[in-house]
Inverse folding.
């Protein structure tokens, strides 16, 4: 049976770029092929992290609250002990004065951005289009699929700092281009950034928030990789809070992706609107996940293991990636984004003569899977060659797999560029002969 889908049905059933890669990987695996998979967003199951969650589960199983947690519905806002644990942690750690009116627990942060995209972005009752502004592109590919009004998503090209000799670069917000005005519904960006590992400075965040505050616009900061958990920042950074800032975090990269837990902290009226959206959509997040998270946060174990185990693991992986690229890449313009956080590396092949998807297919033939960069530029309205020259590389593989994969990537890069140069030389010769 082929159902007749609505406009929204067609839109939401469309595979995003990264999901298309995931499907391609599944199909390839079914055909019996083996790959070094550098596309995954799943965190590595670190033994000490897994044991912490096992211990929290054991505490829940042996407690009197188990039946109340698992066998009953709960409040849409979230499980009370988790709300109290988060508020106590954040208020004490960051000197805040948040109350239970400033927090919402969601089924993962992706759902939170879906609520915001359609409660704060899109068409108003008067028919005015309110935009979802991404101030720094590239950014998380999932932002491209959360709005039921695709024309509401607007992104801005960044300024780019480069060190050609060191083969590194960094994106920064281009405040000469960025516009936040009466047409803006809300602003959204990740810090640290998936896919690039970029961390906006404190001053950049405050400047964006100030621009938005002029028009009473909320700023949602996707802190899925930020302190205090999972603390996947490799450079010093401070979470920024403010009247119009909604701090959005997740427990997925802290070892609990299967339970889908997101946390939003912000203005009471914004939180209330998002909670109402959640009530209508799915009632509440998994109470089992919330209960074990409450144990982990209240005891301090989650914050401790984030800085002591999770962060060093991925920071060391980025160093392996960076060293491997320096050792094997050919003499072409290539650049690795500054590794400031997250579980990915972001590679830019500046003069790539083919598209990122074509390069992906060639590399796949060598047994290596990465993610083409173009899906990470939602909301960019112009034809920008940079969007087809980048790749996200997961840091979830073993050291040896990373080294081997970068050697294969270097070979494909050299072959592609050499073939392109040869074809160019032939065309020039033909023109001269003609």
């Amino acid at each position: 049976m082929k159902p007749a889908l609505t406009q929204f049905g067609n839109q939401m059933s469309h595979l995003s770029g990264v999901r298309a890669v995931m499907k391609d990987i599944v199909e390839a695996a079914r055909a019996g092929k083996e790959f070094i998979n550098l596309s995954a967003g799943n965190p590595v199951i670190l033994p000490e992290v897994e044991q912490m969650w096992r211990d929290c589960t054991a505490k829940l199983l042996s407690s009197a609250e188990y039946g109340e947690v698992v066998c009953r519905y709960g409040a849409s806002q979230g499980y009370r002990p988790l709300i109290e644990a988060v508020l106590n942690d954040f208020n004490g750690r960051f000197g805040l004065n948040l109350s239970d009116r400033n927090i919402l627990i969601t089924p993962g942060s992706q759902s939170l951005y879906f609520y915001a995209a359609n409660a704060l972005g899109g068409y108003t009752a008067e028919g005015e289009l309110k935009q979802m502004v991404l101030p720094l592109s590239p950014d998380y590919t999932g932002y491209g699929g959360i709005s039921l009004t695709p024309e509401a998503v607007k992104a801005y090209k960044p300024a780019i700092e480069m060190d050609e000799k060191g083969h590194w670069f960094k994106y920064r917000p281009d405040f000469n281009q960025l516009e936040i005005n009466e047409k803006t519904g809300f602003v959204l960006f990740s810090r640290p950034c998936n896919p690039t590992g970029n961390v906006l400075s404190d001053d950049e965040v405050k400047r964006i928030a100030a621009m938005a505050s002029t028009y009473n616009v909320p700023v949602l900061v996707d802190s899925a990789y930020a302190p205090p958990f999972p603390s996947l920042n490799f450079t010093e950074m401070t979470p920024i809070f403010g009247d119009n800032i909604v701090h959005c975090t997740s427990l997925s990269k802290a070892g609990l992706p299967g339970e889908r837990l997101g946390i939003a902290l912000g203005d009471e009226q914004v939180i209330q609107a998002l909670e109402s959206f959640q009530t209508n959509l799915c009632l509440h997040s998994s109470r089992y996940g919330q209960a074990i998270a409450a144990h982990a946060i209240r005891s301090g174990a989650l914050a401790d293991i984030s800085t002591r185990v999770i962060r060093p693991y991925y920071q060391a992986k980025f160093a392996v990636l960076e060293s491997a690229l320096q050792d094997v890449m050919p003499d072409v313009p290539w650049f690795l984004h500054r590794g400031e956080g997250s579980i990915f590396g972001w590679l830019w092949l500046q003069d790539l003569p083919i598209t990122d998807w074509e390069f992906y297919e060639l590399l796949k033939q060598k047994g290596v899977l990465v993610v083409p960069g173009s899906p990470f530029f939602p909301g960019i309205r112009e034809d920008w060659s940079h969007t087809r020259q980048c790749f996200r590389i997961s840091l979830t593989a073993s050291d040896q797999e990373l080294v081997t994969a970068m050697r294969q990537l270097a070979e494909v890069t050299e072959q592609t560029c050499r073939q392109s140069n040869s074809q160019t030389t032939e065309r020039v010769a033909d023109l001269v002969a003609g």
Notes: The first helix runs from residue 7 to 12. The chain has two domains: 7-45+305-433, 48-302.
